[in-house]
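Subject: sequence -> C-alpha cells, single chain

Hey, anyone have a minute? Need the predicted structure for the following. Not urgent.
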Amino acid sequence: MGRNMFGGKACESARAAMTSDPTPYGELNSVLHELLSNIRVALGESLAGVYLQGSFALGDFDGDSDVDFIVVTRDELTEPQVAALQTVHARVYALESEWAKHLEGSYFPVATLRDVRECGTPLWYLDHGSRSLVRSDHCNTIVVRWVVREHGIALSGPHPLTLIDPIPVDVLRREMVDTIQGWGQQILDQPDEYRNRFYQGFIVLSYCRMLHDVVEGRPGSKRAGAAWAKRTFGDEWSPLIDRAWGGRPNPAASVREPADVADFDSTLRFVRLIMQESERLSLSSRASARDLP
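Reply:
Had a minute. Here:
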C-alpha cells in the first residue's frame, strides 16, 4: 500500500517529543510522534503512559497492519478531556498519511488497567479507520493486558511491568476460549452483520490466531496463527486462509463490498470447527488439571 510522507513544523515538533523511533516505518513514526504530542497537550499531568500493543508489539507486522495502542491515564477522563481528545484524533486522522487511518486503541485509567476484574467495562476507544472516540469494551481484555505487559512498546511512561500484574496462563486461556465461543455464536446467529469482504477475511484470520493462542498459551499474531492453521488443518482450509490473508489491504473499501458467497459459507464452517476444537482443548485441559496430585 502506498503511503505519502507529510512534513512541516507540526511533524518536526512531534518528532522531538519522542527520543527513539518505535517502528521501522519512518512515516508511521511521524504519525505516532504527532499523536503523542497532541495527547500530551490534551491531557497534561493526567497522562500516565502511551504504549503500542498488537502486532507491532509482538514483532510480526507489515505495511497493512493495524497500529494498536493504549493510553493510560491517572484517572477517568473528564468531559473536557474527552472533547479535547476528539479534536486530537480528528486532527491526526487528517494527516497526509495512510498510517493515520490505521490507528486503533483505548484510554485506560491506571486502576482499570491493573485490575483484571474491570475487563469488559467500556472505555473511550478509537476504532480502526475512525476519527473520533466512542465507548467500547473492545480493548478491555486480559489478552490486551498480557501483550502490553510482556511486549508493549512505551512511547511515553514507565515500563508496563509496573502497571499490570502477572497474568496466569489458565486465566489467559479461559478468556481466549470464551471469546472464540461467544463471538463465534454471535457470528453464527447473525451472519448478515458480517457478510462483507473485510469481515469474512478478518474472521478467518482471527479464528486461526485465537485457536493458535489457546494451544500456545500466549497471544500471538495473525500471521503466525494463519501459518499454524494451514499446517494443522491441511489442504481443505489452506486456500480459504490464503485468500483471507491476501484480502487484508484496503479494509475501508473491502468493508463495503459483499463477501464471496462460497467463501462466506466456508468461513461459517471454519468458525464451527474452531469452536469445536477450542472446546475440546478446554475440556482436555480441565481433565488434566483434575488429575494433578
